[in-house]
Amino acid sequence: MERHQNLKSRLPLYCSFGGLQLSKEPHFDDHQMITVCCCCGTFLTKKLQAFPGDMDHSADASGLLEGSDIGSQKERVVTEEEWLQKWEMGNIGFHKEQRHPLLQKYLDVLLNGRSGLRIFFPLCGKAVEMKWLADMGHTVVGVEVSEQAVKEFFSDHSLPYCEEPVPEISGAKMFQSTSGNISLYCCSIYDLSSSIVGKFDGVWDRGALVAVNPCDRQRYASLMISLVEKNSSYLLVTVSYDPNKHKGPPFYVPESEIKSLFGNCCEIRCLEKVDDFSERHRQWGLDYFLEVLYLLKFVA
Ligand code: SAH
């Protein structure tokens, strides 16, 4: 906190109207100074500085952003049928046409100097980064409950593919690019195990843990832990907003929960928090929305 106080005078915050507008004492989060503009109510955040490898001040990061209470989201359940409907209706605001800036920025952290990795995309949708990583020479495996999403992935990228049943999972299919380096399992992630898909050197988890029903998080985390090799790197993107104002998904996942889900098995580092607030989030009734990137490092 003292460190933050020292930085305070050097980090003024401006609202979009240009004035220095601190309506109240700034709240200091791990990496940011956060406050609200008194003229327009804008939620202002300012990155303080990166503290690589230094994430253990969450005890003083309580309050606005790091509350561990997820409110009524705890009980919320989105069924597989509802996810299929979202795809059918084209209600897929979560899908991004551009590569995720945080994956581009932290790709080296994920790869850690290695090539030819097996990289897992849980709850993959039709994430464009799968093609990007495959083009770099990695082997990509995804799992997605919507067959429409899987087929759209291949057609969006004009990639020929073949499909085959997965003998171990009733009703499941595996769609594989003809070149063999992208395999997408069409089934529930909970049907997978390392005996079916093997283990992975890297994971890109964006729109995945945050899309899992809160009551299933423990099951999801245990499964993910069972699917990673020793020495693997797992980039996890969560979102932070006031869970009393939006029912999700994406669901708010507090830092304390990341620690309790994964902390026994890996080192956890918060790499970055970015302001991702947009009109979409304003329409949800929110006044701030952050993306939070963690590195989960599974050691030998
Ligand atoms: N990660 C993707 C998609 C995020 S939305 C991206 O970043 O764009 C979450 C996705 O998970 C949806 O496409 C939904 O159809 C899929 N999904 C939801 N529950 C699932 C489950 N149990 N198993 C596999 N996929 C699931």
UniProtKB/TrEMBL annotation:
<keyword id="KW-0949">S-adenosyl-L-methionine</keyword>
<dbReference type="GO" id="GO:0008119">
    <property type="term" value="F:thiopurine S-methyltransferase activity"/>
</dbReference>
<dbReference type="Pfam" id="PF05724">
    <property type="entry name" value="TPMT"/>
</dbReference>
<dbReference type="InterPro" id="IPR029063">
    <property type="entry name" value="SAM-dependent_MTases_sf"/>
</dbReference>
<keyword id="KW-0963">Cytoplasm</keyword>
<keyword id="KW-0489">Methyltransferase</keyword>
<dbReference type="GO" id="GO:0032259">
    <property type="term" value="P:methylation"/>
</dbReference>
<comment type="similarity">
    <text>Belongs to the class I-like SAM-binding methyltransferase superfamily. TPMT family.</text>
</comment>
<dbReference type="GO" id="GO:0005737">
    <property type="term" value="C:cytoplasm"/>
</dbReference>
<dbReference type="InterPro" id="IPR008854">
    <property type="entry name" value="TPMT"/>
</dbReference>
<keyword id="KW-0808">Transferase</keyword>
<protein>
    <recommendedName>
        <fullName>thiopurine S-methyltransferase</fullName>
        <ecNumber>2.1.1.67</ecNumber>
    </recommendedName>
</protein>
<dbReference type="InterPro" id="IPR025835">
    <property type="entry name" value="Thiopurine_S-MeTrfase"/>
</dbReference>
